[in-house]
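Troubleshooting log. The previous structure file for this entry was overwritten by mistake, so regenerating from the original sequence record. Sequence copied from the archived sheet and checked twice against the printout by T.R.
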Amino acid sequence: MVGDLEGLLSGRNIRRLPAVARISGRSRVFLRRIRLVGDATGHTGPGIALAARALLAAYICLPFSAGGATYLDSRVSLMLALVVAAGLQPPAMSMWQLGSIAAPLAAALIAEVISIGTVWHDHEAVVADLRASVAAVPPGSKVLTVSAPFDPAAPYWQAAPPGLTAFGIFRIDSHLPALLAIDRRAFWPFLFSDPSQHPIAVRPPYDVISGDGEPPTVQSLVAGRSLDPHWSAAYLRDWPENFDFVLVLDADGAGELSHLLPDRLRLLNRSHFTALFAVRKPGDFGPP
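Regenerated output below.
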């Protein structure tokens, strides 16, 4: 039930339809499924239909992002799934029936724990890769992070190591460069300093080169502005003057990087996951 509901209400699916079709079609299907499941398992708890309708309305009306927060609609869909699951009261069952349900649930929980542990273990290689790359960054440096374009259908993302994407449709590696602040005492634009969400503020002159959202694409360096309509990334304006290094995430998905803006960048190191460039300053006539 919960998995089917989450698939029904995923942002990727529902946003393919016009708003009117979402309201008139998806809501009727969803509420019909609540009634069917309630009839089959006993009945729904008091207020569940009202809560489901309220959350469904919020899901339809909420934008993707607001106030610096993202995936607002998808978060509500998770709440909706949990409310429905918690509100269904099954009929009385014998001990044998309860055991036949508890055993596969316990097995599924154990399998999930093992899966999560495996992902974290494999993800350590990506973290080690990033740490080795940024070891060349001295404390106090200003590092601009960019990334390969995220396209779930691209070969790189299809074969991405565990921990870089969720369900194959969301990237979850955007905050890994926070290790720059932790390990290297260096500045990077995404310091979790949105005034509507976080208790810290970026002081001048760094405030003008801070931001939020996802890392801009490598092509944004050429354009000098964000190519993603969701994130303005104002810090890309005059980036060669404001940053000392450029860190490219998901380097193997970004294409040929050895000759990226050779008049402005000098490649320091490159791996499957990262590429670190020094920003050329006036008088820097070193090798490309």
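Residues 2-89 form one domain. Archived copy saved in two places this time.
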